[in-house]
Design a protein that fits this description.
The chain contains seven helices and three strands. It is mostly helical. The longest helix is centred in the middle third of the chain and has 29 residues.
Length: 180
């Protein structure tokens, strides 16, 4: 019994693991029984491709197909979804507990919630008026970015590392095609 349930549970999650199959199930749940052609039409796929998806849903027991002449009519069988739902409910306790702890942590006041302390010195104005003062003070006063070779300011990467040197040439070597 348990092995049968495990196999069915695997088949259900396999079937639900594909967005196309989930869409097919949604259309069957919302609109009732439909033919394979009606299910395939909004997806712009062939009947053969839709049939493969429906076979996976049938293997999981989520869809029942009834043949009426040359027409295959599919209907939703939601019973196996309750097995998957029960399996997920068992683990819901774990993620709900973690989400509750995260919420408590986020609601706790932290350093960002405290009013900022008064600054020791007023901020330097930015823009064109600040440039002549920095140039008059010299490169040492402007900092190491202004003293970069070529006079261009160099920004540092995270961690205080200097930027990588610019690449020259193609980004990748050309691929060699095999000879026949």
């Amino acid at each position: 019994m348990v092995e049968h349930q495990a196999a069915q549970l695997d088949a259900v999650f396999h079937a639900l693991g594909d967005p196309t199959r989930r869409g097919l199930l949604r259309r069957l749940a919302d609109g009732g029984p439909r033919t394979v052609g009606q299910l395939a039409e909004p997806l712009q796929m062939s009947l053969a491709a839709a049939s493969k998806h429906i076979k996976a849903l049938e293997a999981a027991g989520l869809v029942a197909r009834e043949v009426q002449g040359r027409t295959h009519v599919c209907r939703l069988e939601a019973g196996p979804l309750s097995l998957a739902s029960a399996w997920l409910r068992h683990y819901e306790v774990f993620w709900a507990d973690r989400l509750d702890r995260l919420e408590a942590l986020l609601r706790r006041p932290g350093p960002a919630d405290v009013a900022p302390a008064a600054k020791a010195a007023p901020a330097e104005p930015a823009g064109p008026a600040a440039a002549p003062r920095a140039a008059a003070a010299g490169p040492a006063a402007a900092g190491p970015a202004a003293a970069a070779p070529g006079g261009a300011a160099r920004r540092k990467r995270p961690g205080g590392r200097p930027p990588r040197p610019a690449r020259t040439g193609p980004p990748h070597p050309p691929r060699q095609r095999g000879t026949p």
